[in-house]
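So, is this right?
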Amino acid sequence: MDILLIGGLWLDGSAWDDVVPELTRLGHRPVPLTLPGQGDGAVSATLDDQLAAVLAAVDAAPGKPLVVGHSAASTLAWMAGDARPEKVAKVALIGGFPAADGRAYADFFAIEGGVMPFPGWGPFEGPDAADLDQPARDRFAAAAVSVPEAVARGVVRLTDERRFDIPVVVVCPEFTPAQAKEWIAAGEIPELARATRVEYVDLDSGHWPMATRPGELARVLSEAANA
């Protein structure tokens, strides 16, 4: 199966470099995506531009792909399912949840000069970054790609209720499946509250398992694709 891999904020397709070989070995065709505004100098890139790039990858897949979104890009993966409910086999969300219709995509940190730069490690101290040693943190910060303002502040649009019937796998790295279920039950994640088929997978890592647990993450995604 084609497995489309969408990294979260500040990540391009290279974030999946350690996951891709294992997915290939397990018999899949991983497709790491580098989207408009991720290192190509297109600071004017919009959320619609990024969604269009994801949909182009969905449409290019020979069958129905598994669309994987990490962190904020969980919303982008969900938007792809909304736009192509008949084409997406399953959505996997790693360390993130889809924003609701009408909400900003990822307006979390300060905008400087038309982009949202990586804010440093302060906001991520604790479970998010506990398994990243200093060299890993330095590599991440050096490679981080500032997010165009029109992506971060882009408005999420969801229009097709068939999205709720797409199977969803919630991969829980720095939080537990029990916590995720509590948040959904409390109404904090309305999109998943309406999803009809949701599975949860615990993954003992921080927020960036593609960097710290790539083999385990690949196996989780392979099992999701095969189920």
Summary: Residues 47-60 form the longest helix (14 residues). The chain is about 35% helix and 15% strand. The mean pLDDT is 96. The domain at 2-226 is CATH 3.40.50.1820 (Rossmann fold).
